[in-house]
Amino acid sequence: MSQQAAESSPRQPILIHDPTLRDGHHAVRHQLGRDQLRAYAAAADAARVPVVEVGHGNGLGASSLQAGRALLSDEAMLSVVRDALTTTKLGVFMLPGWGTTESIRLAVSYDVDLVRIGTHCTESDLAERHLGLLRDAGVDAHGVLLMSHMASPERLAEECARLVEFGATGVGILDSSGHYLPQDVSTRIAAIRSAVSVPVIFHGHNNLGMAVANSIAAAEAGATILDACARGFGAGAGNTQLEVLVPVLERLGYDTGIDLYRLLDAADIAARELMPAPPTIDSIGVVSGLAGVFSGFKNRVLDVAAREGVDPRDVFFELGRLQAVAGQEDLIEDVALALRAGSTGQRERTASHV
Amino acid sequence: MSQQAAESSPRQPILIHDPTLRDGHHAVRHQLGRDQLRAYAAAADAARVPVVEVGHGNGLGASSLQAGRALLSDEAMLSVVRDALTTTKLGVFMLPGWGTTESIRLAVSYDVDLVRIGTHCTESDLAERHLGLLRDAGVDAHGVLLMSHMASPERLAEECARLVEFGATGVGILDSSGHYLPQDVSTRIAAIRSAVSVPVIFHGHNNLGMAVANSIAAAEAGATILDACARGFGAGAGNTQLEVLVPVLERLGYDTGIDLYRLLDAADIAARELMPAPPTIDSIGVVSGLAGVFSGFKNRVLDVAAREGVDPRDVFFELGRLQAVAGQEDLIEDVALALRAGSTGQRERTASHV
Fold first, then answer.
1. Tens of pLDDT, residues A270-304
2. Do B280 and A282 touch (CB under 8 A)?
3. Beta strand B225-227 with B15-19: parallel, antiparallel or unpaired?
4. Distance CA A194, CA A99 (A)
5. Among residues A234, A297, A274, which one has the least CA distance to residue A57?
6. Any idea where the domains of chain B sit in the sequence?
């Protein structure tokens, strides 16, 4: 029935990278327990998902008062998921600052197959030491750029080329605030694709309902590693929905090697065992995506806006205009106070103003 | 930040048609009450949504044992929503068979601004009498084709041209099973666009996570009337999410005339007052969309599959292969029995087989 199935052309392989047990952790304040990790990891393994990523939402070493204490230690999470996997590879995520060289050694000691090092989109230099360490240890290492809508395609391509020099065996971009539309993704992936010879990665969020479409745009522009989570379980409005993306890719002529029925089973297990409710796009999710603000700011914005009696939507749009980045949480207070004083923003805003 | 904003080019107008109080009725077994209808209609009116459609999920005259009894009569629904609207137009939906010429007279007596007549995608002839009646009454009338993925672009264009001959002032297609990917929509809308001179309509469902992307593809191919519901409230995996589509359209340079903040307020009211939970894409939703099966079959398939001890996913794929259409519910039994007897389908299915 579809006009798009490319049955006669050779099927392009796409490697699906599944951070359900890492990005999804954001949605449950990092409180997944052993049985939950084990149940989902085993189900993903049975479906032949190539890589499962596990950890605190902010990655190795991030469990803390500031980022939220995880229920389990990094060691416990790695151990449980390592034991649950047979053919699926074990991946971890790390943001330098939260994670350290010690975290890398820990991951290596648990026989992790793949480590992802993430940095802000213009700060790939921060990944040099960790990528070098992983290259020396012979462990597959990805370098990924967060909040990537804040940099031009050319700049992202340069940063990715640098990540490859540091030793990354795959590089790419995260749409951390769910801001992209498909054409934004195409341009950026194409620029990166032409700058590097390693596999290119795309990781979407669904704030504007575009996570699946953006991932397809990424594949069409040459990305060969796509991130997706069961039921979209992830920060804010959620990630690209895994069990939707996979059959859509297959229908378009890509080859994921994944068993659809078992993938649907895994998603059902995730829905039942991991999440109070699957992610949906609420009004704050829409505004956060439009404004291009880091999803992690949500609760702080809501708290501060309520206290100061200002519209949290105005706070998001102003933070977007100021190009606030993760780590600049202090700006939230400044913006709310300025809005209360009437020195910026406006309470009425038509859709054409965004 | 987006590469796509077309700020310098003239903004193309898009008319948003909002069936939250009609398609959403499917999700709550047609049980919305007066206060609920009033609250949402007033909020949509305040946001300057151009048209609000109200009624039983299957439209005028459909309240019945077979299609489900609505809490309110057609008269009560029309009366409450008519009173709640100031500038927003009042729309109704009708499927010939459920609705009759009497239903049209009723709608006209309640001063309805717009009547939509829906038929299966190859049966536009069934709308002739009703569209003629509306033309004679001077009421704006749309003709829309259900389950439109089952017909070729050329056939849909012919059927739409016929609807225009009958008197339709707008024509288009419903993706009733949520089967389309953007390229499928582009081809069909372009074919219809070149066959008629009235506005072209697209109505999406989100089974494959593509409702917003498909609606954008429709606009880019020349559709100027797009359907969308608050939080996607609608049958099965839900419709295109209204408060996501509108700002995405605006960002791409289209003009909806809608107030974003008040639209987000209306969506929040819908989430709080109308729905037990916003629609999400569950595994059956994915399978139903992939198979191209009418969403209304869902509960019957689940019941019959459980009784016969077969996999409901196999039943969906087999119904899709048989091109079952709404009204052919008997096929569900036949397929389940055949699967139990082992004479069709298979229990293991990789993603590449869909």
1. 999 999 999 999 999 999 999 999 877 888 899 99
2. no
3. parallel
4. 31
5. A234
6. 12-273, 283-353
> Do residue B261 and residue A150 have CB atoms under 8 angstroms apart?
no
Give me the amino acid identity at B233.
Answer: F
Contacts (Cβ under 8 Å, ≥6 apart) of B252: A181, B4, B5, B6, B216, B219
* Closest listed residue to residue B349, CA positions, set B287, B282, B285, B303: B287
* Interface mutation vs chain A, best among B147, B181, B319, most A CBs within 10 Å: B181
**Could you name the CATH architecture of B283-353?**
Orthogonal Bundle (1.10)
Q: Quick check: is B120 catalytic? A: no
The answer for residues whose C-beta is within 8 angstroms of residue A165's C-beta and 6 or more apart is none
Segment (H or E) for A291:
helix A283-291
Domain B12-273 and domain B283-353, same fold? Reply is no
- Summarised one tens digit per residue, pLDDT across range B37-65 is 999 999 999 999 999 999 999 999 999 99
CATH architecture, domain A12-273: Alpha-Beta Barrel (3.20)
Give me the residue label for tokens 């913006």: A335
DSSP class per residue in A54-95: ES-TTBTT--BTTTB--SS-HHHHHHHHHHH-SSSEEEEEE-
β-pair partners for A51: A17, A89
User: Is residue A344 a contact partner of residue A318, using CB atoms and an 8 Å limit?
Assistant: yes
